[in-house]
Write a structure and sequence with these properties.
45% of the residues lie in helices and 18% in strands. With 326 residues, it is α/β, with parallel strands linked by helices. Helix 4 crosses helix 8. The longest helix has 25 residues.
Length: 326
Amino acid sequence: MTHLFLGVDVGGSKTHALIATEDGKALGFGESGPGNHESVGYEGLFTAMHECVTLALAMAGAELAQISGAGFGVSGYDWPSERQPTLDTINKLGLACPLEAANDMMVGLLAGTSQGWGVVVDAGTGDNCMGRDAQGRVAHMTGCGPAFGEFGGSGSLVMRATQAIAYEWGKRGPATRLTPAFIELTGAKNVDDLLEGLALGYYTLWGDAAVFRVANEGDQAAKEAIAWAAGELGSMVNGIIRQLHFEGETVEVVMIGSMFNGGPLLLEPFKQTVLATAPKARFIRLDVPPVVGGVLMGMGAAGMKALPLREKLSASTKALLGKRTA
């Protein structure tokens, strides 16, 4: 019987499953909806995992019994008390193999680092940061966002930009091109209507809400908002670096999420912030789905030395997804 390995990456907006052979050839991929239990509950987590695993198995032409090891990166699994309900939900899939589960940041770290240790920072709509050292010790942020002082995703960037608009409106700050940009995006009548609508929830903004575009046009408030987000992301990375004593190490910092597509306005202050704490840091923009790290985690759970297969698995996953979308 062919031995196959499963990786699952559960996110707040989508969930991925990947199946690969023991020599690192990707065979099957599946995608489903959000699985973070904080928003969809543990039943929603199970549904998302079951749907994408079923799709990946079908694409691979495989059966669940062929899975020899599985790794799960689970968004919303942030605290020790969440481990058992997370494992209980995973076990409902019916796997009969060794498996491991961790926060979804860990699969991104495994997918992006050359030695399996370093720091991973995610900046999409939200933000998070985690690290692991060569001995397997893990460090993390709370994953609880603004309530715990963790900023840097597009949601907090838009929050900061909206504050600049409110400062202009209240005569506490200078005029900003963010105001007409947000009025246009929402369809608001004017700035009064914009702020009222945002306060009462009948206007919403998504993505980076044109903050990068306005900044690239030269708007100072937009540029300051991006620099602030970059500094906050760098601050989280530095916290992990200090926790794991990476200050003098050639530590790899893996960057995940749409905010890192923002170009020099974000990347330069972000890197400067990190390099001030860890001058030897190397920056890696993850260019494969983080679920690759889930497969590597699954191989490790089964007792394999998975790290030598990382590059081959990454390349074959890119090839598989290229075929899928061609």
